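We include the entry.

. . .
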Amino acid sequence: MTIEEAQARVDAWIKEYGVRYFSELTNMAVLTEEVGELARVISRRYGEQSWKARDPRAADNGEQALEEEMADVMWVLLCLANQTGVDLGKALQKTFEKKTNRDKERHKNNPKLQ
């Protein structure tokens, strides 16, 4: 699925099932919440945090949860893009160009990355 297709599918879903978009401010808060949930999974799967014994996500070390939380973050970001008129595909292309122009030698020359 392309980013454009994802934005269109989210928009169609909102119109069919979601009644309307939450406000931009509410969706920003929801995005923050979803990023926090993703951080929780990552801290337990890759960091020093451990799973609580009763947490059902511990069974597969959060593999399914990692996918779910990343998709939730993307969903809300797509909602925000739709409601603010941002074409994420075009925006991402511009970011690739910006990062390439700015960082094409920077990371190669960073001794911390060697």
The helical segments are 3-18, 24-45, 63-84, 88-103. The chain has four helices and no strands. Residues 6 and 27 are 17 Å apart (CA to CA). The first helix runs from residue 3 to 18.
